[in-house]
User: Fold this.
Amino acid sequence: MKKLKNEAALFKEAMLAGVKYAEGRGVVQFEATDSASEKLLYIYRLLVHDKVMQPLPEDQVAEKTIRHKLAMWYAKQLPKDHPLLK
Assistant:
């Protein structure tokens, strides 16, 4: 798994985009008490269910790999000249 430049910032933005996507679909309403891990797994499973991203093999589903996968998903949506990709 190759680490992306600015992966932490990309992941942070990916989480915000994922929450917006999930709540926009009307399938979930996240609470302030929901942990980041719960949100992360829910967003990942929803994006896989909607066929927005390819699933990981079940034995590789872990917080670290999902964080990376979400960061990559978000990076692919950004324009090539976006500051987070430099």
Summary: The chain has a mean pLDDT of 93. The chain has three helices and no strands.
